[in-house]
């Protein structure tokens, strides 16, 4: 039996996870899409994908906060990029099969935001430290805090172990 696969569809790597199985709420998923457009703009400046990032934030958030969230997201990812030595791997927001997968880097980036929004700065800091390969994270943490404050408050006040396991494939439960 054969199964047609989208040409851009990837096999899940050991640290990749499916977005649908993550605990990210709608605001965090919209923020991820915005960040993916920003990353595309960094990787291919001629694409001007930053414009798609602002359109995404405008469509996903209130008119007064969309541009602020897009700006804060860009500042956050820029500080993370400055702190890392290795390449940041991300999936395209414009390719639905690709966008359905969180790379390890995207997962850590978004898990830091997830924890920051829920009042767990130590967990957010840990994810940033791992993402930034042990390098300085003070500036990235400050931008993360600003982004989390710009986003609407999460509906859930605390996340349980099942949600943590969904973002950490293969982790002991």
Structural class: mainly alpha
Task: Work out the count of structural domains.
Answer: 1
Main beta sheet strand tally, sense and closure: 2 strands, antiparallel
Instruction: Please give the oligomerization state of what you see.
Output: single chain
Strands side by side in the biggest sheet: 1-2
Tally of helical segments: 8
The H/E string reads EHHHHEHHHH
- How much of the sequence is in beta strands? under 5%
Task: Give the topology.
Layout: E1 17-18, H1 26-43, H2 50-60, H3 66-83, H4 96-99, E2 101-102, H5 104-117, H6 121-131, H7 138-150, H8 161-167
Antiparallel strand pairs: 1-2
Helix pairs in contact: 1-2, 1-3, 2-3, 3-7, 5-6, 5-7
Describe the structure concisely for a colleague:
The chain is mainly alpha-helical and 173 residues long. The chain has eight helices and two strands, in the order βααααβαααα.
């Amino acid at each position: 039996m054969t199964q047609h696969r989208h040409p851009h569809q990837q096999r899940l790597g050991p640290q990749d996870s499916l977005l649908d199985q993550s605990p990210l709420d709608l605001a965090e998923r919209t923020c991820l899409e915005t960040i993916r457009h920003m990353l595309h703009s960094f990787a291919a400046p001629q694409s001007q994908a930053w414009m798609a990032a602002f359109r995404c934030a405008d469509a996903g958030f209130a008119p007064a906060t969309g541009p602020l969230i897009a700006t804060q997201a860009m500042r956050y990812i820029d500080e993370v990029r400055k702190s890392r030595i290795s390449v940041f791997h991300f999936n395209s927001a414009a390719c639905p099969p690709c966008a359905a997968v969180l790379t390890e880097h995207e997962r850590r980036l978004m898990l830091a935001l997830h924890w920051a929004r829920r009042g767990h700065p130590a967990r957010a800091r840990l994810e940033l430290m791992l993402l930034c390969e042990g390098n300085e994270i003070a500036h990235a943490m400050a931008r993360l805090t600003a982004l989390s404050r710009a986003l609407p408050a999460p509906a859930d006040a605390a996340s349980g172990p099942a949600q943590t396991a969904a973002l950490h494939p293969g982790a002991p439960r």
